[in-house]
Amino acid sequence: IDWCEKNYVTSYYLAEFWNTITNLGMIIPPVYGIIDSLRQGFETRYTICYALLILPGIGTWMIHKTLLIEMQLLDELPMEWGGSFMLYSLYRARNSFSEGGRIVGVLLFCYAILFTVVYLVNKNPVFHEAMYGILIGSFLLLAIKFICLLYTKGANIPFLGGLLLYGFGFVLWN
Predict the structure, then answer these.
(1) Average pLDDT for residues 58-63, to the nearest whole number?
(2) 174 Cβ neighbours under 8 A, 6+ residues apart
(3) Residue closest to 55 by CA, chosen among 20, 87, 80
(4) Are 107 and 130 in contact (CB under 8 A)?
(5) Contact 153/162 with Cβ under 8 angstroms?
(6) Under DSSP, is residue 113 helix (H, G, I), strand (E, B) or coil?
(7) Predicted structure pTM score
(8) Are 87 and 138 in contact (CB under 8 A)?
(9) How far apart, in whole angstroms, are the C-alpha atoms of residue 106 and residue 63?
């Protein structure tokens, strides 16, 4: 997919200079998250979630740098796999492994495998966007459920603000 910048205008080495440079914003914050997660002694799955945010960031950086289909796959496949693991981690934050965690994990793993196989055969970006939208929609519904059950209205305001920004970003992305 050729994105929104004219190719190789600013630099001979970067296909889309500004998309490549600004994409560092998808790589640097998760690095800080990993460091902070390790410093605070969080469960390993949370550190893994931050690491999984870095992978599509690097993939996106590489696609804007090269415009190669292989780099696009380095962007889109980690989005689905990472999103699946993050949804599983969110589910496990309130439910034990014996309370359906195993089933949820297996279902999300099967989802990621099925998505990968279908997408490698049929590289339709609309399929990726729709499947990612379903995955993130599920994630957000579960997060909203947990926020409403656990926190006061004061805690909901930053969450809802983040939700609106994420939704706005998703609309712009599409």
Answers:
(1) 91
(2) 129
(3) 80
(4) no
(5) no
(6) helix
(7) 0.82
(8) yes
(9) 30
Please say if the pLDDT value at position 96 is more than 70. Answer: no
Q: Answer yes or no: are the C-beta atoms of 146 and 93 closer than 8 Å.
A: yes
- Per-residue pLDDT, 79: 93
Average pLDDT over residues 8-29: 90
- Dihedral through CA 94, CA 98, CA 100, CA 102, nearest 10? 110
Give the Cβ contact number of residue 98 at 10 Å: 7
Q: What is the mean pLDDT of the chain?
A: 87
Lookup: tokens for 122? 């049929």
CA distances from 100 to 71, 105, 106, 108 (A): 35, 9, 10, 12
Q: Which two tokens stand for residue 17?
A: 């200079």
**Helix-helix angle 44-66:28-40, to 10 degrees:** 170
Using only C-alpha atoms, the chain has a radius of gyration, in whole angstroms, of 17
